[in-house]
Amino acid sequence: MKKYWERLYNGIIKENPTFVQMLGMCPTLAVTSTAINGLGMGIATLAVLTMSNMLISMLRNLISDKVRIPAYITIIASFVTVVSFVMQAYTPGLYESLGVFIPLIVVNCIILGRAESYAGKNKVLLSIFDGIGMGLGFTLGLTVIGMIRELLGAGTLFGIKVTAELFDPIRIFAMNPGAFFVLAFIIAFINGMAIKKAKKNGTKPNLRRIDGCEGCTNFACAGKKVSPEEAEKLMKECADKRANAQAAEPVKKDSEDNKTNSSEKKDNDKQEDKSENKSENKPDNKSDEKNDEKADESKVSDKDSKMDDNDPEAKTDVLAVNDDKKKDDKDKAKSSTGKLKKDKERQV
Description:
This protein is mainly alpha-helical. It folds into 3 domains: 2-211 and 218-225, no CATH class; 232-301; 311-348. The protein has helices at residues 2-14, 25-30, 35-58, 68-90, 92-98, 109-119, 124-154, 176-201, 228-310, 312-347, and strands at residues 156-157, 160-161. It has a two-stranded antiparallel ribbon with strand order 1-2. It is elongated, with a radius of gyration of 46 Å. The termini are far apart. 22% of the residues are buried.
């Protein structure tokens, strides 16, 4: 049972998403004009966070790492739809006052952060208690900010008049800038109490943010407490890794260039071998063609001789055909010479 109570304690006090981790600032600053709005928004987030943690933990071994973020968003969006329908049916006034911030619970970084960092890696019961603890902590933060803003800005508390007759309400606290003022005062008060406690115990103050977190790109740490010495070591390690990566880049480029050059050389060698083979085969083909022509001529001459010996009329026919061919060749030669003369005259 200690593990379950620890998850509740961490979510409400030690790792409070509003005052410690500073997550979900959009609804924290926009919705908390009254205590009722803050309480309603917190309860809606609590329901979505608990149910999504439960289902994601149940499916953690079935969801692939490549699609885990889309799967988590789909699960969260389905529960947000259910919660919005319930609020629209049973609390229409609260539903209208919260407006678009109910659908925006889908992209609340608290819910997606807990799904990624805790529910996707732990058992179902622990994930449920983690969701309840974080949801109660978020609800507490929104309700406290809403109570202070409503009390100072309107003189009421949950719609009941409290200080309206004692002093005039400070209207700026009911407006958007009032949310920043109230949040800053609460965080300053928490840090002041931590400094006092640390002085009494003779230890370093355990503040919300410490030196070394500025410029950090590790968004999964969720505001973990790190000493300045440890932060310097981490920064040095990151710098060394970057330097090694940059030094390895030219080596990779050189190896890639060598591979491309070797492949090009192989291609060129293959082309040269093909051209040499073609050149070697060409004279053989020409000689074969000449031999074929000679064989045909010999066959024709043999036929002519046989015709001459056997049939005198065939001989006269062959002679007439040969005379006609000679005449045609002469006519072609004359026409070609005439064309050449014309072309020369044109050029002149």
